[in-house]
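As a warm-up, study this chain.
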Amino acid sequence: MRRERVRELLTRVAGGSLPIEGALDALAADPVESLDFASIDHHRALRQGYPEVVYGGGKTVEQVVTIATKIAERSDGVLVTRVATEAVDPLRAALPSGEYNDTARTLLVRPRTPVELTTEAVLVITAGTSDLPVAEEAAVCADAMACRVERLTDVGVAGIHRLLARRDVIDAAGVIIVVAGMDGALASVVGGLARAPVIAVPTSVGYGASFGGIAPLLTMLNSCAAGVTVVNIDNGFGAAAAAARILRH
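Now compare it with the structure written out below.
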């Protein structure tokens, strides 16, 4: 249950449009719902600001659909990441209001009670077009977590003038997520330009010597730009969650 929904319930009780017993019934719903294959944490949003996210990888279609539906039933919204191709249509059928992003492989159902967006934006900077699946995952997840999101795409160090031409967008950002594969150098460049926190996401994009993302991961971890934080390879979701916590702290 989101804080916004609790606030809405209390406001309705105070205004006389909702009986106290009705609010108690809504608040009394079990915080943890146990299924045969999962234990759903329905009160995570109260603690952390956003409901439990369903990671689609490694689950059967039935498991993904059931978990997502159970979370969505509480009207707090639900986000499913890494949606397998065979799960797209069943999820859409079960959650018709869901917004599916083919590039990010995410499905988002927005909460019944609107959540106010952050004043400052999360800026997602993508080194190359091949990095877009991870970058879009970060952008969708940040949007789901009620962050205002902006994007800069295909501005890697191979054509650094493309990045430097958008200094105004970089300077205005509240948090910056830099998504890059190959040599991963873009995070250091942005870290040396920006005053906002920079979260670097190495991707598994690159030729053989990139070792599936280890090369950009090590580059980002060894960044000479102060204050660059690094998440795991291809972890757009983790970068978005960190950015949302920074902006909403």
